[in-house]
Design a protein that fits this description.
Number of strands: 9
Protein name: XRE family transcriptional regulator
Order of helices and strands: HHHHHEEEEEEEEE
Helix content: 25-40%
Shape: elongated
InterPro entries: Cro/C1-type_HTH, Cupin_2, Lambda_DNA-bd_dom_sf, RmlC-like_jellyroll, RmlC_Cupin_sf, TransReg_Diox_bact_type
Mean pLDDT: 77
CATH class of the largest domain: Mainly Beta
Structural class: alpha+beta
Keywords: DNA-binding
Pfam family, one: HTH_3
Strand order of the largest sheet: 1-2-3-9-4-7
GO molecular function: DNA binding; DNA-binding transcription factor activity
CATH superfamily of the largest domain: Jelly Rolls
Radius of gyration: 21 Å
Distance between the termini: 70 Å
CATH topology of the largest domain: Jelly Rolls
Low-confidence stretches: 1-8, 185-199
Oligomer: single chain
Length: 199
């Protein structure tokens, strides 16, 4: 029991240096992080220096502000092994495998969309960013504004996610996509045209 307590203390003590390193990597000041999270500058300073014990109540807003998973603050940093070991995430009925490790900026994912997605009808949505999709396997339909685009393996589409859109898989097989997503609107340079629109 004492050994377990020592392990927990070691993990908690290591949060401060990792928090400081992540903040500095993003060129973020304590004041800016305080404004984003609602945590006072003095509390953040004490967390980074190890004078304040990290709690879940403090860590959750920090992970959101720094755009990192909680385990990145709690776990040892990865070794120098360059291989990405993605952890599947289920989002909006799709399985997403993150292919990039750098938080913020352009992100790459492998997305697997089950047949009949989405259930309950198509609902067009908008959000911040810019998206680029490459079809690896299967056939999917993209509703983009007033357009309906059917894409098959090898085809690519990019679009501003401020335009109402929905990704659908009429089936019968799962669809596999390679997705690049820029939350700040980073723009890729390959376009797919609707069928029959010319060369």
């Amino acid at each position: 029991m004492v050994g377990m307590s020592d392990d927990v203390d070691a993990v908690v003590q290591a949060v401060g240096p990792r928090l400081r390193a992540l903040r500095q990597q993003r060129d973020t000041t304590l004041t800016q992080l305080s404004e984003t999270t609602g945590i006072s500058v003095s509390t953040l300073s004490r967390l980074e220096s190890g004078q304040r014990r990290a709690t879940l109540e403090l860590l959750l807003p920090l992970t959101r502000a720094l755009q990192v998973p909680l385990d990145q603050l709690l776990d040892e940093p990865p070794s120098q092994d360059p291989r990405v070991q993605p952890r599947p995430v289920l989002r909006n009925g799709m399985t997403m495998l993150p292919l990039t490790r750098r938080p913020g900026g352009l992100q790459a994912y492998k997305m697997i969309m089950p047949p009949g997605h989405p259930t309950g009808g198509v609902e067009l949505k908008t959000h911040e960013g810019y998206e680029w999709l490459y079809v690896l396997n299967g056939r999917f339909v993209l509703f983009l504004g007033d357009q309906r685009l059917e894409l098959t393996p090898g085809e690519v589409v990019e679009f501003d996610t401020h335009v109402p859109h929905a990704l659908t898989n009429p089936g019968p097989a799962p669809v596999e996509l390679l997705a690049l997503f820029g939350p700040q609107g980073e723009r890729m340079h390959v376009r797919a045209r609707p069928r029959g629109s010319g060369d």
